[in-house]
Structure formats: structure tokens, C-alpha cells
Amino acid sequence: MDFKNKKVLVIGCAKSGEAAAKLLLARGADITITDSACIAHKQALQDMGIAVFDGGHPDFLLDGEWDFIVKNPGIPYHNPFIKKFVEKHTKILTEVEIAYACAPRFHYGAITGTNGKTTITSILYELLQENGRALAAGNIGCPLSEQALIFGEEEKDIALELSNFQLLGIDTFRPEVSVVCNLAPDHLDYMDSVEAYYKSKMRIFKNQHKDDWFLRNVDDPLVMKYAKDIPSTVIDFSLIRQDVDLYRKDGGIYLHEQLLFHQNDLKIVGDHNVANAMVAACMAYKLGVSIPSIQKRIKAFQAVEHRLEYIGERNGVTFYNDSKATNTGAVVTALQSFEKNIILLAGGHDKGIPFDELKEFDDRIKCCIAFGETRHKFQPIFSHVNICETMKEAFDRAVGLAAPGDVVVLSPACSSYDQFKNYEERGRIFKAYVLEYLQQN
Predict the structure, then answer these.
(1) Which intervals hold domain Mur ligase C-terminal (predicted)?
(2) What's the confidence (pLDDT) of residue 187?
(3) Per the annotation, does 116 bind a ligand?
(4) C-beta of residue 367 within 8 angstroms of C-beta of residue 302
(5) 96-300 belongs to CATH 3.40.1190.10
(6) In CATH terms, is domain 309-438 a member of 3.40.50.720?
(7) How many angstroms separate the Cα of 23 from the Cα of each of 139, 158, 161, 221?
(8) 118 is in an annotated binding site
(9) pLDDT for res 243
(10) 318 φ, ψ to 5°?
(11) Type and span of the H or E element at 401
């Protein structure tokens, strides 16, 4: 795609917006950026030749003749400013689509789903490094446009984590291998309905060709319901069944008859992580990583930060940071990893998702210590609930309640925006609490 002299409005100057603006500018586009907040480095952007309007979106931008808009994926389409462009049928893209057009020699393993995306992406990136041309990008933290600006003329293998927000703004993006790892209700504060959320995930395979692969989780009824009319080769996978393409048998993970790796070589806990590693290994194989290399890298992989991350142990009590569990499906995964004696720290910003599916784990919960905006909503869910204002209070109560054999897990089931900037900050602060406690005499 030729961007020279294209007139582009970038809405939202977070990392992805700025990266897209710089990439488009390098390709000769005429860029305007607007943000509802103040942009700290406004002058630097203006010095590059970008028109910048911050502290709000001026109405006159609505009258501009834009070739297309690049929208920050976190801004919903029903935002009043965005909605006016939707009503005018202005093309709205995501920075992923821009990067895809600017890096024709990138090869993509694209991962979406509700839970496990970051772990799969991290394992895939680890495996792809074996071929010496790996990059990680997308929702994992680094915008794809940033990688395209630096490496756009090179051949690279990309482990790409995609949110449904990003998938809503793709047009031609085509991964060589993709997966919707699972589905559960999420982002109901953003999407019109849970069905719209599920359907948005399926956009990941819409441009694939027959020789591309789509990995389909046959253990997930919602994936099976919504993953229809797939244009690529379907690789069905399961932890339960063996009559599929990718499966577990006698402690080994197999693609057809080929052993990919031994389950015991994984250092991360839980069946969900076996599934994550299974998917990543299959994707790496499709992207050209050899079986011996996959096996070597699987043995070396460590837990992803903030995703059921082991922090330490004291007096027989173990501590885990699962701050990335921002919905109930992710918390279910955490609770399935421990049989009993769980002290669960949960709560945060209310995304409108009910917590009812957690009730079935009540017998595993020694106590739920709930904090933040949603703290009172856990009282009908578990038999034993303590209510706190802050995570620090919740942690202190957890330490006071804990006995040898207990597991203390921060797995909030909510986003962090009531008390923290993001789930990473929440997780880092929780780890600091734990490490300080572990070091006490």
C-alpha cells in the first residue's frame, strides 16, 4: 500500500498511535494526531512535521477529508468523536494493518482469545528465536508499527498478540498461522454484546489462504460455535481428545504422529499452560522451527510476568502474581491450578462481567479477600469473604490468615483502573509487597 501524500488522522497518542504516526510519516503521509489528554512530547512530534491537537478533539477535525483514520484500539467505536466518523463511513484502521502493509517480509504467528494470549505469544517468541529473526509485537507491549519502522525491509518472524480491539481495525492482514485460544465473556464495557466480542475474534483468520493454518480449540464450545467458514487449513487441538491433529498422549505433545515435546519438560504449572505451550510449539513448527529446537526452548521457558507467576514461599505459604487475570475465565484457569487452600485476592474496576462461574470453586477457596471497586460483588460468590479497600490491606490480611500449605494468589477478575494505571503496575506492586514480606526476619 502506498501511503505517500495520504492524509491521515491518528486518534490517540499512546504507544500504538505514536508508532503508527511515525511509520506513516516515514512513508510520506501527511499526519495529524489528536488526543483527549495532554501529550507530554507534543513539541517533538510537531518538530517532525506532525500536526498535534491535544487536551481534547477539536470539532473542525470532523470536517477534514481524511484518506483514513488510525484509531487507538482502546477507544471504543461508540465514543462520540469516533462514532461521527463511523457514521460518515470513514475508513478506520488499526496500527497493525498499517504495519502489515509496510513490512512485506514479516511472517506472522497471530494469537488472540480471551485468556492465555500473552503466555502463548511469549512461548512462541522464545521458540522463534531459534531461527535468529524473531520479534514479539502487538498487545504484548510493543506496537507492530514500531517493529515495522525499524525492521520493515528485513525478513522477520513475528509472535503477534492481538486483542479484539485491534482485530476490529484490520483490512488485509494475513497471518501464516493463527489461533483463537479460547473464548469467555470480556470487554462488555467496550463491545455492543458478548456475541459481537466473540465474532470480532474470528477476524484473525478472515484473510488467510488455504496453505495457512488456523488452530482450533475443540475443547472450547464457544470457539467451535463461532469458528466457522475458515478459509485456511484447520489444525484441531485438544488436551482431552486424541482424534485430532494436535494432542496429548502418554505425556507427550504430538502434531499428527510427530512428537513436539514432552509435557514434563515444561516448568510452568497447570493444564492451561500445557495447552499454551502446545499451541506455541505448533505455530513455531509451521513457521519453520525444527523439532529439536522446539524441545530445547520449551525446556528453558520460564513463567510470564503477571500470569500465574510464582513469586516465592515462606513458612509453607506460596505466593503467585496473576494480575493479568482481568476476567473470570482467567481466574478459573488460576483456580484450576490449585486443588485447595487458596487465599484469593480479587477485585478492581467493574467491567460489567458477572462472577457467578467462580462459585464452583468455593470448596478450594479458604478465603477470598476482595478489594477495590467490585469488592462487595464477591460476597455472594464465596462462603468466606473478607472486604478491604486497597490491595495492600488485602495482602496484609492474607498474610495474617495464611498457614502452611496455603496458596496466596492475586487473581483479580477485574481490570486495574480503579486504583492502578494498568495490570502491570498492579502486579509489580503486589510482587513488591510479597518480596518485602519474604525478606523479613
Answers:
(1) 306-414
(2) 54
(3) yes
(4) no
(5) yes
(6) no
(7) 18, 18, 20, 40
(8) yes
(9) 97
(10) -105, 150
(11) helix 391-401
Residue at grid coordinates 496455603 = 406
DSSP of 245-280: SEEEETTEEEETTEEEEEGGG--S-SHHHHHHHHHH
Q: Look at the domain 7-93 and name its fold.
A: Rossmann fold (3.40.50)
Which amino acid belongs to residue 162?
L
Q: Is 119 annotated as a binding residue?
A: yes
Place of cell 528465536: 129
CA distance 311 to 144: 30
The position carrying cell 488436551 is 239
Contact partners, residue 333, CB within 8 Å, separation at least 6: 115, 116, 270, 272, 308, 325
DSSP state string for 154-222: S-EEEEEE--HHHHTT-SS---SEEEE-------TTTSS-HHHHHHHHGGGGTT--TTSEEEEETT-HH
Is 169 marked as binding a ligand? Answer: no
pLDDT of residue 189: 58
Domain spans of the chain, in order of start? 7-93, 96-300, 309-438
The whole-number mean pLDDT for each consecutive block of 10 residues of the chain, a chain of 441 residues, reads: 94 92 97 94 95 95 95 88 94 95 97 89 95 92 93 97 91 97 71 81 97 97 96 98 97 97 88 93 98 95 81 91 92 88 95 91 96 96 96 97 95 94 95 94 68
What is the predicted pLDDT for the residue at 165? 87
400 annotated as belonging to a binding site for a ligand:
no
- Are the CB atoms for 94 and 169 separated by under 8 Å? yes
Is 17 annotated for ligand binding? no
